[in-house]
Design a protein that fits this description.
2 domains, Enolase-like, domain 1, five-stranded antiparallel beta sheet, 331 residues, elongated, 14 helices, 5 strands
């Protein structure tokens, strides 16, 4: 029993020494590298590419915490290999100062930190801490030449990877669709019964200038399905609100089934297109026809009023087509 208590006290004392060593090491590095860390913090603050740098030390500390089982039975023992790492760190820091390259000075932090751990803590402490030390590399700004050289290949890789993910997930891969799919999944999970399937009409929005948005059928799809249709179109330039916001180039296009004027598709390019498209989307969800827009009174001046005038245009084109058909039959 006596020996067990002694061993327990020894283990506690040893762990205390380990944490005291870590604290002293962190304090020493902070004092030594305070100017360098200040420059890096300024870069994190003003450069969006490195704004994650503020989070990296915290995640490195979490790595140390999750790897604390490696400290069990660890003994602080000097390893002279630390001098080699310290030499590399010192050489990098001198080179960074001579060449006036901040990134080289920053990278000297890693071998310096590794060298101090080895020299003062030994191999067991290094085995515990090296992943956290390596992780700190993510907070270090790269030299401009490396940024330029790696920027294009990395963007290409990101594009290829994201395209692969979208292809894997399937069409359409939209934020709105994903949220709806998640809602359906939760309804099924908790047996809520009020939303059992994903809607068959999905909106699409491209948030460019000007915005582009659509829902429902396209002219091409209606032609492939051999569904007779009528197009109704109006422009921002002929709408009072469109003139106010200066969106003269935008337009709204509605696609109606010719025989009963049921709305089948909505297409829009212009200011707030991704918002205004929802009027047509809701109309299609309720199987509405042209009469909905003709009977509705819209606020003036609004972009919503474009639906009424696009419908007038569709009714006029339908009447013209029907008149042409009747004249051909009479001939």
């Amino acid at each position: 029993m006596f020996f067990k208590i002694c061993n327990l006290k020894s283990a506690i004392c040893n762990q205390t020494r380990v944490w005291l060593f870590v604290s002293a090491l962190v304090l020493t590095l902070l004092v030594s590298y305070w100017p360098t860390l200040g420059v890096m913090a300024e870069r994190w603050w003003r450069d969006p590419q490195y704004s994650h740098g503020f989070l990296v030390p915290g995640f490195a500390a979490l790595i140390l915490w999750f790897r604390r089982p490696f400290l069990a039975g660890a003994v602080i023992k000097t390893s002279w290999w630390g001098l080699a790492f310290l030499g590399v760190g010192l050489a990098l820091r001198l080179a960074g100062g001579v060449m006036d390259v901040e990134s080289v000075d920053g990278f000297s932090l890693l071998p310096t930190l590794a060298g101090l751990v080895l020299l003062l803590g030994g191999r067991q402490i290094f085995a515990w801490s090296w992943p956290a030390i390596a992780f700190l590399a993510f907070m270090l700004p790269m030299p401009f030449a490396f940024e330029t050289a790696l920027g294009r290949p990395l963007r290409y890789m990101a594009t290829v990877a994201s395209t692969y993910v979208l292809q894997t997930i399937g069409f359409p891969a939209l934020a709105s669709t994903s949220m709806e799919q998640a809602r359906v999944a939760m309804v099924h999970a908790f047996d809520l019964k009020y939303k059992t399937q994903l809607t068959h009409i999905l909106p699409y929005g491209i948030y460019t200038i000007p915005e582009c948005s659509m829902a429902g059928e396209t002219e091409e799809s209606l032609q492939q399905k051999k569904i007779p249709y009528v197009v109704g179109k109006t422009h921002y330039g002929s709408n009072a609100r469109g003139q106010i916001i200066g969106g003269k180039e935008g337009f709204l296009k509605l696609l109606f089934r010719e025989d009963d004027m049921k709305l089948l598709g909505v297409h829009m390019i212009g200011e707030q297109a991704s918002e205004v498209i929802h009027i047509g989307l809701t109309a299609m969800q309720t199987n509405a026809d042209a009469d909905l827009f003709i009977q509705t009174c819209y606020n003036y001046p609004t972009l919503s009023e474009m639906y009424k005038y696009a419908t007038y245009d569709a009714l006029g084109r339908r009447a013209f087509k029907q008149k042409a058909k009747s004249e051909r039959k009479s001939d």
